[in-house]
TrEMBL record:
The lineage of its organism: Bacteria, Pseudomonadati, Pseudomonadota, Gammaproteobacteria, Cardiobacteriales. Residues 140-163 have a biased composition (Basic and acidic residues). The keyword Signal applies. Residues 1-18 form the signal peptide. Keywords: Signal. This is DUF306 domain-containing protein. Residues 140-171 are annotated as: Disordered.
């Protein structure tokens, strides 16, 4: 049994090794799960050839009484080396996006409101220079599966066709 995991790693390594920086360029729809804290991030991320990326998305915290919902916008830089995608924050903004029913519940339940304020503070605490490293588990031109240092999975699907390379003038 102890040899099974190295064997599986060896079999899946070609998928991660096949990913190039050029393969990342373009628009991706991504979903990251955080099971330990009952949270999820869904975003649309654009990887640019100049090493920058932008994302717009929604962060959800699943609580007993419903969903705490936030919208996010991030501007970041990215590098890909040895099957690890490193994304570093340049600028991050977050706004509350609670449906009326959830806002009413927050107004009526101080303990839940205190928890929400704490989560909002954590999200607003993302600052320039914060970085995450994502190990690429499987990749092709249409799908990308990764995980962070705590094994939280990120699954991405290409949201549009990769832009064609520009042709030289006169050809």
């Amino acid at each position: 049994m102890r040899f099974l995991f190295p064997l599986l790693a060896a079999l899946t390594a070609p998928f991660a090794a096949a990913l190039s920086e050029a393969d990342l360029l373009g628009r991706w729809s991504c979903s990251t799960s955080y099971p330990e804290i009952n949270a999820k991030i869904d975003d649309v991320r654009i990887f640019n050839a100049d090493g920058t990326t932008t994302s717009d998305g929604t962060t959800l915290f699943f609580i007993r009484d419903g969903l705490l919902q936030y919208t996010t916008h991030n501007e970041e830089t990215w590098t890909l080396k040895d099957g690890v995608l490193r994304v570093e924050t340049v600028k991050s903004t977050v706004e509350r996006a609670m449906p009326p029913r959830i806002q009413k519940m927050l107004d009526e339940k101080p303990d839940v409101a205190a928890f929400e304020a704490k989560m909002f503070g954590v999200l607003r605490g993302v600052k320039a220079g914060d970085a995450v490293s994502l190990t690429v588990d499987k990749a092709d031109k249409q799908q990308l599966n990764m995980h962070d240092e705590r094994d939280n999975p990120t699954e991405c699907t290409r949201a549009e066709a990769k832009p064609a390379a520009k042709q030289q003038k006169g050809k």
